[in-house]
Amino acid sequence: MTFFSILLALLIEQLKPLRADNPVYAWIKYFATRMEAWFNAGQARHGRLAWCCMMLALMVPTALIYWLCLHIGFAAAFIWNVVIVYLTLGFRHYSHYFTSIQLALNTGDETTARTLLAEWTKQDTTNMEVGEISRIAVEKALITTHRNVFGVFFWFLMPIGPACAVMYRVSEYLARAWNEPDHMRNENFGRFAAQAFYWIDWIPARLTAAAFAVVGNFEDAIFAWRNFAGRWKSETDGIILSAGGGAMGVLLGTPDENASTILPVDASIVDASELDEESDAPPGDAPTPRALQSTVGLVWRAVLLWMFLLLLLSIAIWVA
């Protein structure tokens, strides 16, 4: 049932993408804002309490409805699974930005590409060159796909899958909403949300990196993952982007700015003893607009790999 739930939800999303500003997401954002207003008294324990309360408020009803559907019948549980996967997946939420940037770069319209990238990433793209636009678009696409697709896949496979999928997507949102805005960056309130998502995403991030390696250039992906993942401020982002860049043969990211200029590896950033003797820079070439097409291929191959493994797992469970 799990395999067909994900497959049907993916097909529905391809035909009818769920907008990023849909009412369900809008309500969760409003709820998160209210929880922050109610609980934020300036201490980390208040953020921990707010996080737990919000998770219980969303996960418990989801799990209870799933349990009720199981008792009603297979069809009811299947429909509920499809609904939850459709709501938690975000394969097409932001793909229009990526596709439009790719088309703009292919036609030489750098101005439009900069505008679209600024809308998508909320960065200042005024003076960005084509290579820099390509690089940031690729990085954003890889991270977004992981958090909106592969992470959901992993947690949906857990017991009480629908509730776990909701937990993953909501925890990812809280880690951003309670830490990234200017008025929240130095607050203790969001510290627990960030730590909780780090551990929730610990295994999925590594499985995503492994999938990129399997469907891409395995040797370069593993080499980049092992030696250069520490160049990113975020350990999770570093693992995914180093493996993804190595799999495609594309240089991604910088140690200090996350994706604004390519810099050689420096001994102050990475211990030279951890690198292979012949290596002084990550494998790959500087990003070009062609890297965006490579990203599309890598992501789809990784999706097919996940679905194939899920099918094998479903068959094994059914036979057993």
Automatic annotation (TrEMBL):
Keywords: Cell membrane, Cobalamin biosynthesis, Membrane, Transmembrane, Transmembrane helix
Transmembrane segments annotated in the record for this chain: 64-89, 149-168, 298-319
Protein's cellular compartments: Cell membrane
Keyword Lyase: no
Coiled coil location: none
A Pfam family it matches: CobD_Cbib
Key word Transmembrane helix present: yes
GO biological process, one term: cobalamin biosynthetic process
Pathway named in the protein's UniProt entry: Cofactor biosynthesis; adenosylcobalamin biosynthesis
Topology of the protein relative to the lipid bilayer: Multi-pass membrane protein
NCBIfam families per UniProt: PRK07630.1
Annotated family: Belongs to the CobD/CbiB family.
HAMAP family: CobD_CbiB
Protein name: Cobalamin biosynthesis protein CobD
